[in-house]
Amino acid sequence: MKTKLLLSIFTILLLLITACNKKPTSTADQSTTNNTVFIEKGLEIAGATQATMSAQLKQAMETGGVPNAVQYCNVAAYPIADSLSKIHHATIRRVTDKSRNPANAMNEREQLIFKQFKEKWNAEQPATPIVEQLENGEIAFYAPITLQSLCTNCHGKLGETLQPENYAVIQNLYPQDKAIDYVEGDLRGMWSIVMKK
Predict the structure, then answer these.
(1) pTM summary value
(2) What is the mean pLDDT of the chain?
(3) What is the pLDDT of residue 32?
(4) What residues have CB less than 8 Å from 104, skipping those under 6 apart?
(5) Domain extent for 152
(6) Where are any strands of DSSP class E within 79-180?
(7) Looking at residues 157-170, what average pLDDT do you find?
């Protein structure tokens, strides 16, 4: 009986010592790890979407110039994003504060996130991706989109990189267009990707 009591006390002391020496995993450490994983996943989804759209847009441009590329964007951009959304189990959107298609306008939350990106951009600081957990448990990923050189043909400065005859085609398809006067490297918008649970 005495041996059992001593063994029990020894076991309890050993557990206490082990527990005290064990480094606890902080919520912050876990959160940072999770953020890194979700940032990598978000960048992977955004990269795959950008690569697919860019390749098709480039082909449309080579086939029929800006008018053909504008038609391509008008018809094919959403189906591509939708198909990639299914593959990645996510909702993929490209949003902007100066939209061409009203469907790409930012919601209230996206406006707040984009404001943060703009402030950093204007201060010449890195505008790094942001992730946040939504109330329903899904993860939202946001990352800035910069204007590439090919994009200046449709989103550039009117009369310079964007020719008036091409802008007439754009205005015919998008009468409420606000998405011009950019130069290569400008902050054009952002990825807004919601990863499903």
Answers:
(1) 0.80
(2) 84
(3) 58
(4) 93, 94, 95, 96, 189
(5) 31-195
(6) 90-95, 130-133, 139-146
(7) 96
Rounded Cα gap, residues 155 and 148, in angstroms: 10
**Residue 124 token pair:** 């010449």
**Tokens 């005290």, located at residue:** 20
> How is residue 129 annotated by DSSP?
-
Q: What share of the chain is helix, strand, coil (3-state, %, to 5)?
A: 60, 15, 25
In a domain, 164, yes or no: yes
Give residue-wise pLDDT tens across range 34-80.
789 999 999 999 999 999 999 998 999 999 999 999 988 888 888 88
Is residue 25 one of the residues assigned to a domain?
no
Please indicate, yes or no, if residue 12 is contained in any of the structural domains.
no
Distances (CA, A) of 44 to 106, 141, 143, 194, 197: 22, 11, 12, 13, 17
Q: H-type helices in 89-151, by residue range?
A: 108-122
Task: Indicate whether 8 belongs to any domain.
Answer: no
Number of domains in the chain: 1
Residue 29 CA to residue 48 CA, distance in Å, equals: 29
H or E element in which residue 18 lies: helix 2-21
